[in-house]
Protein 1
Amino acid sequence: MKKITLLICLFAMSLGNAQYTKMGITGDGVGGWPDSPGYPTTEDINQMTSTDGINWTLENLVVGNGSFKFRADYTWDHNWGSAGNPGGFSPLTGTAVSNSGTNLALPVGIYNVTFNSTTLAYSFTISNIYPTISLVGTAVSGTDVFDADFDLGTTDGIHYSANGVHLYPAAVKWRQNHTWSATTNWGPENSADLVGTAVLDAQTAVSIAVEANYNVTFNLQTLAYTFTFPTIAIVGNATTAGWPLNTPGEIDPLVLDTDDGVNYYLTSIALTAGGNAFKFRADNAWTVQWGASTTPEFPSGIGTQSGGDINPDVAGNYSLAFNRQTGVYTFALLGLEQFQQSDVKAYPNPTRNNWNVSANGQTIEKIRVTDFSGKVVMEMHPNTSEAAIDASGLSTGMYFANVSTATGSKIIKVVKQ
């Protein structure tokens, strides 16, 4: 009996200290999920190395917007995620969780990675192969201290960015490697410009008027920059857009409006019931998302990071309000006839000059045109039943026109020849 017990213990210990032949890092934040659209392979592209099958390392891992996991031997039988992502991001050092329902997520950048497949301890260290570009100023610190830096991430040393940067109503500039010199700092041409081209050693700073979270981009070659509010979209099969396919570069079409980066809203959205569901997510990725945390979950509730699906119990057209900071959401049934998908037409399509848009006699309140990357290239408020979109100044390619009336919105694909 003692011999059998000893063998069982030894077998259990061998399982707990299993050595793996391969260890990968996989996910849409690091190149794509295996067997997903745009990544049709079972192998993990980011392979770590080890001399003992326990301690694994990988240098210069490129991390973009999205999430990822550790995975052994090309199988989901052995995978590790995060214990939690406060603020949408995982700690840079911590202990991974086996078969976790929460993926790892980090700010955009290049990292050196370590992972111990026995203790599950991991670390991500910024790889300093490119210059550091940071936001600096009282808008970063929220105090009178100007020398407060917030480092932007980069994967190529040219395009720098960060999502969800909390800025205060004050001044902000850019500088390189946390130093001041005539060749390593930039300011705007005009302090009021949240989108523009920076000027080397400018005596001006960007004036942030509204305290909020901002998505920030900066191009070290062209010096083009943007400060924009994070996008929040509603996704799921209870909407006309459906669930995201998780393809690289995918853009969520049902984007909420905002004036301050905190309070988001839609004047009308069509929802279906019958077991269909939806969630909210930020910036076209699952890194920051909100699902149900309260009962009942509809028509109002509090969304939490990685909460459950939200299930409408009555189909119809709703107005929607959502607070990004608190997660509180509220839907109000409009009681109007459903906005039919076939009501909106654009012609000629393709076109070289104008798209003529009609809404079957309904008044078109707003048309927002975005390119394939999700960038808004045009917005108009015609308040007529027909409107002409001037496409003559647009580049050749595919665009998306989000047409809104009092009873709903419809996204149609339009092509410029």
Note: The longest helix spans residues 2-16.
Protein 2
Amino acid sequence: MNDFIRPIPSIIDLYEEGDLNGLNISELGQYLEEKTHIPFRIQGNIYKGISKGNIQVVAEKLAKVRVRDPARRYVSRIPLQAEVDYEKRRIQDPDWKIFGILYDGVFYQNIISDLISECGLDLGDCSILFTNQLFGTWDR
């Protein structure tokens, strides 16, 4: 199969991250189903399935992909303990108000994809994450 051609999904899974300021995920799902004729499921908070033991690992990954200087390309570094602690609090509080932290979009997507995969991602599913988190990429 061509890497750019994917089958039509059998279901759309809708995830959320943080305080979405009243965004109605159910209405969005109904709209998508109406337009695509593909049923949807509201999966809730993207972090809800993380085991207590895995919170530290995910927090470290998120802290590591923070962008310190948006004017420069992302540089891998060891995160500060305060950054890891912030991420742990954010993961554990579904109503966390996200503010002003920029993450490398490619690495952020990989972390989120891994979380979804751990919940039993099927190749026939389409997963959409609604977030107000800032992330970006650089021209290659």
Note: The two ends are 26 Å apart (CA to CA).
